[in-house]
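__Protein archive entry__

___
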Amino acid sequence: MEAIGRLAGGVAHDFNNLLTVILGSCQLYNRQVGEGPGSRYVTRIQEAATLASKLTEGLLTLSRRRAARAENVRVEVALRAFEPLLRRLAGDGLDLSMELEDAETLICVDPGLLDQIVMNLVLLLSLVKEAHPSIEVVRLVAESLNNREIAERLVLSERTVGNHLSRIYEKLQVGNRTGAVILCRRHGLV
């Protein structure tokens, strides 16, 4: 596992260097050209590179080259800011519905890890949707709860959740929700 972590860290570091060039070039383009015929494409490149940068941060955290930086995060603000990228990840086949309260819900989490967790779940659901078209809605619910309650109630729901939950636990090699939460805590995700 340590060797995999080192490999992931090396790849993430090299990839981050490439992303720096891509993001820097986009900024130079925007400064020199401004609004033009290609500006919307440059914006998409910037968004994708920023998302890729967050992914590499997750790899660096996995390899422990970057410590998880937990901070108080307003769940609603974080998820709303991330919503456009989630919609792109979900694609046309997955109906992404975000129902968020306008409460001051704070959780102590690394913002990059929160994005990574939600993004991975949306990606997995979009893949499951291809195999099981009955999935209709992804619902992210954030309430004014403590961290433990939020971990238990941050919900991704779909009509056939019962059919897939046992498969998720099987893939994680855990028997139930408690085992899944323990696994997430062990990896510094919650």
Remarks:
- Confidence is low (pLDDT under 50) at residues 134-143, 157-161.
- The radius of gyration is 18 Å.
